[in-house]
Design brief:
- The chain is an alpha+beta fold.
- The protein has a single domain (about 5-110), classed as K homology (KH) domain (GMP Synthetase, Chain A, domain 3, 2-Layer Sandwich), CATH 3.30.300.20.
- It has four helices and three strands; from the N terminus they run H-E-E-H-H-E-H.
- A three-stranded mixed beta sheet has the order 1-2-3.
- Strand 1 and strand 2 (about 45-55) form a beta hairpin.
- It is globular.
Length: about 110
C-alpha cells in the first residue's frame, strides 16, 4: 500500500518527466510521441519504475532501448527540476506501457 508521500512523489516525477520528454523528445526520439503513464516509487525513494507509452508503437522496443540509454541524462534533467523537493533523485527504470495496444486489440476483436 502506497502512502501519501509516495503518491505525491510519484505524481511529481510523472509530471516533470512528462515535461522533459515533451521538450527533449523531438531531438532525442524523432518521430515518436512519448507519454509517461505511470511512475511507481520504491518505499525508500531510491528507485522509480517509469511506464511510458510510445506512439506510434512500431519499433517500440528500439525506442525503449534509446530511452534506457538516455536514463542518465533524464535523471540529471529531473534532478535539476526537483532538487528543492527531493534530497535523493531516484534511479529511473523504464518500461513500455502497452495497455493502449491491448485495449485496441480487444476493441478490434469485439468488432469482428
Amino acid at each position: 500500500m502506497e502512502g501519501t508521500r509516495l503518491q505525491k512523489v510519484s505524481r511529481l516525477l510523472q509530471k516533470e518527466l512528462g515535461e522533459i520528454f515533451q521538450r527533449e523528445g523531438a531531438v532525442r526520439f524523432p518521430a515518436k510521441m512519448i507519454t509517461v503513464t505511470q511512475v511507481r516509487v520504491s518505499p525508500d525513494l531510491g528507485v522509480a519504475k517509469v511506464y511510458v507509452s510510445i506512439f506510434p508503437s512500431t519499433d517500440s522496443n528500439k525506442t525503449i532501448e534509446l530511452i534506457r540509454e538516455s536514463a542518465r541524462f533524464l535523471r540529471g534533467e529531473l534532478g535539476k527540476r526537483v532538487r528543492h523537493q527531493l534530497r535523493v533523485i531516484p534511479e529511473l527504470i523504464f518500461y513500455v506501457d502497452d495497455s493502449l495496444d491491448y485495449i485496441e486489440n480487444i476493441d478490434r476483436l469485439l468488432k469482428e
